[in-house]
Amino acid sequence: MENQKPNTNLGDLMRESMDKVREMVDTNTIVGTPITTPDGVTLIPISKVSFGFGSGGGDYGKVDAKSFGGGGGAGVKIDPVAFLVVKDGITRVLPVAVPASTTLDRVIEMVPDLMEKVEKYLDKKDETSEA
Questions:
Q1: What is 36-91 written as a DSSP string?
Q2: What proportions of the chain, in percent to the nearest 5, are helix, strand and coil?
Q3: pTM attached to this predicted model
Q4: What is the mean pLDDT of the segment spanning 70-99?
Q5: Are 20 and 74 spatial neighbours (Cβ–Cβ below 8 Å)?
Q6: Domain segments of the chain: what residues?
Q7: How far is Cα 103 from Cα 88, in angstroms, rounded to an integer?
Q8: Which residue, among 76, 105, 78, has the nearest Cα to 93 in the 3D structure?
Q9: Residue 101, Ramachandran bin (φ over 0: left; ψ between -120 and 50: alpha; else beta)
Q10: Can you tell me the distance from the alpha carbon of 118 to that of 131, in angstroms, rounded to the nearest whole number?
């Protein structure tokens, strides 16, 4: 463990705790590093990150640095949600999470399929009008 001077006030304690949380939670945690398979398919993992943070403390007497008492805690939860699957220029969403529980979640999950159906319909309509 690093040899650091102890925190002397609540602000320092909170800043240090939040810096550690930032180290754990970054954009690479949410949108993972793309993985390319030998057959040319690219998989991009997508995760949901939840975190909580709490801190507290007090200065007692302000006589010396040892008069500060405090503590803090943080928790991080990472849930895999889906993979973006890119093959031959077509991107699909492959969900890996629990099925949607709210109406809005269900609608969001339906958007890629709906877009694909609309695209096929428009392509078919163009072919019919050209003939």
A1: E-TTS-EEEEEEEEEEEEEEEEEE-TTSSGGGEEEEEEEEEEEEEEEEEEEETTEE
A2: 40, 35, 25
A3: 0.48
A4: 82
A5: yes
A6: 1-98, 99-131
A7: 32
A8: 105
A9: alpha
A10: 20
